[in-house]
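Continued from yesterday's entry.
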Amino acid sequence: MRLFLHELAAQQRIFWRSREAAFFTFLLPIIFLVLLGTIYGKRDTIGGIKAGTYLLAGLLGYGIVATSFAGLAISLVVRRESGVLKRVRGTPLPASVYLGAVIGSTLVVIGLEVVTQLLIGRFLLDAALPDALPFVLAVLLGTIAFAALGLALTGLVRSAEGSSAVVNAIYLPMVFISGVFWSTESMPAFLKGIANALPLTYLLELMRRVFTRDDALSSSLGAILALAIWGIVGGVLALRMFRWEPREGMSGT
């Protein structure tokens, strides 16, 4: 446990020293929440839900994806291609402790981001607050599922230079199609079909029910199951595809 906590603290220092990572994964969802919240009045609604609550739930989901999927995948590809992961693998530090600390650090960042968004949503946007237990479970499930998918995605990215382009090409369209910023009810049928196949759609469904319904968990069993399946698929693929050795060096030998 002491070794894990030491590595967790080290991962936190690495994250906050990277200004780009801190901005795009931590600050950007918060900035979007403030900016979009000023557009809608306190009496406006989106998809039948109070606008402030709708945006807060959506941008909480966006923050989870930005941090546990996009940010995690990009950072691990960069570390792999720069040889950091290979050097870690050659130390006495167990691989499970290292990856556990990386994911744990991601969860800490998400926790801080969630608290900040909830405060902004409540006091600036007059948004509702969710019940604690269903909300925490939704955040944990979303974080674990998207972290598993992020680990799996690293196996598809061959270079550090291309990591941002590949990851953004996947997660940014998902953010817009899944309905983070607006209701999907008015989208064309083919986009709705795509949205129904995306894991973020189910995280947003679960998150918004946590904010608006007392029976959020029991009424969201389909969304929970879909997220769990995506997480399991991501975990299986991560076990098969995650690499500690640089991919560029391997392709050039």
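--- second protein ---
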Amino acid sequence: MLRVTVSVLALLLTQCDEKPKDALAPAASALSKPVAPREAQVFVIDSGTSNTTFSMDSELEKISGRAPGALRGELFVNLHDLTKSSGLVQLDLDQLGIYQRKRDDTSGEFGTETKNDKQNADMRTWFEISQDTPADVRQGNRWAEFKLTELASPSLRDVSAAQAEHKLTAQVKGDFRLHGRVKPRSARLEIRVVYAAERPQALHVRTLEPLLVGLEEHDVRPRSAFGKLADKTLDALGAKVAKVAQVSLEFTARPKSAAP
């Protein structure tokens, strides 16, 4: 009887440690490219101008990530009515590097920022883009994607007038896919539309408020190898690893006919 009781208790504890399935965002292998709205002009992201950053602040570690030049994608922009715009932006996680600042206890000061090779390798294992990941799975996980479905409440709706610059703010809404899991996200943007010779030459876009991305929702968690969870869970690493990443973007997009 004692053996049965112990076995049942062990099973219950194991089930408690497992992530509830309803906590995970829905699965998707990729996001489809949106159909260009009527009267929309196509703008292509200039990858070389792009920069993506994130921050994760916990009690003992501040982790930051930087991926310069890692964005690509297209925006379908209706210059007469920005709310009728859409697009697909992709981030290459292979180009992401992470850095950390640590302290020994909560009363101490955070140290100098460093880049730790093991931590970067661990990050790739968590995302399942490490070298031991099967090629098809790795390729699918390599790209984080944001599908713009709504540009809401722009402070300036019509930017079709040929003038040096239009500057506005708006709330971008859409579907965010990371590690094969998709969840609706939104962020506040600043957009500058630059004209020359009476034609739009560039869109300069940057986040004013970051996208908040929960690691657990996207099944990004400690792994020791592909398909093998680490002994320590995100909860166990709570003092060192925050569960939410604050993601910020900045890029320039140019008319497709003029894009490099």
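The radius of gyration is 21 Å. Residues 37-258 form a domain with the Lipocalin fold (CATH 2.40.128.110). Will compare against the first tomorrow.
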